[in-house]
């Protein structure tokens, strides 16, 4: 499985072949929900205890209005052959989903329909010039190049001030103050992929491949590298009270507070793709060996 979401009713997990599993109640096992697609799903996002979305390859978007018990197909674009990786709600009606090659889909009707937007503002000047030159000769070639020129967006975050922040491939970091219509790229601090971003009070934290993590105390103007003594790739984070947990491959778990850094290995050393707490507070891992509860020493 590739992603977990938690509601008051239980847990929802998504993954390969379009599988969606639900676990409602502490004593209940995992049950497979009926799904309208067999496309690999990469992310599940619940906006509340009833309304949510599952995203995946071929720009597929599934929606639920009953807490994950049933799902409807909202979008399927096999012509794109690229995955969506994250989603944010800007209001009840206004949603955006992003993913590979910087693709963005926007909905203004609560996720019933979606429209593609090309984010020219994410292009570096050389790439913009390149695309313009191609377009002078062939619109078809221009569209083909445009479809794959932007870096992948791995994480889409809504900050406390309402602006949006993305991290991704090739050290991509960018911020939008107009609901994702335009973006301002931040100076590159790392040339590998960044996988996750979290706002921790006045601090911003980004993390990615091979144990690389960086923190900013001035809203992204300056960054300091964190020495976390691990080479494991970070796949995501979980905010647990005042603690931020970075989790990743090889069971890596880095626990950060303003006063301390603690490095653990959990889940039998398997690669941790996602980590969520259920309604009772039990932590669950979605990893290379499946779904399992984990206990973390205090």
Summarize the model shown.
This protein has helices at residues 125-137, 139-146; strands at 3-7, 10-14, 20-24, 31-32, 41-46, 52-56, 61-64, 72-75, 84-89, 95-99, 104-107, 115-117, 153-158, 164-168, 173-176, 184-185, 194-200, 203-208, 213-216, 224-225, 234-240, 243-248, 252-256, 261-265, 272-277, 283-287, 290-294. It is mostly beta strands.
Write the layout of secondary structure elements.
Layout: E1 3-7, E2 10-14, E3 20-24, E4 31-32, E5 41-46, E6 52-56, E7 61-64, E8 72-75, E9 84-89, E10 95-99, E11 104-107, E12 115-117, H1 125-137, H2 139-146, E13 153-158, E14 164-168, E15 173-176, E16 184-185, E17 194-200, E18 203-208, E19 213-216, E20 224-225, E21 234-240, E22 243-248, E23 252-256, E24 261-265, E25 272-277, E26 283-287, E27 290-294
Antiparallel strand pairs: 1-2, 2-3, 3-4, 5-6, 6-7, 7-8, 9-10, 10-11, 11-12, 13-14, 14-15, 15-16, 17-18, 18-19, 19-20, 21-22, 22-23, 23-24, 25-26, 26-27
Helix pairs in contact: 1-2
Radius of gyration: 19 Å
Unreliable runs, pLDDT <50, ≥5 residues?
A: none
What is the tally of beta strands? Answer: 27
| CATH class type of the domain at 1-149 | Mainly Beta
The strand order across the widest sheet is: 1-2-3-4
For the biggest sheet, the summary is: 4 strands, antiparallel
Mean pLDDT: 93
Gap between N and C termini, in Å?
27 Å
What is the general shape?
Answer: globular
Task: Find the structural class using helix and strand composition.
Answer: mainly beta
CATH topology of the domain at 1-149, anyone?
Neuraminidase
Architecture per CATH nomenclature, i.e. the level-2 architecture of the domain at 1-149: 6 Propeller
Report the portion of residues in β strands: 35-45%
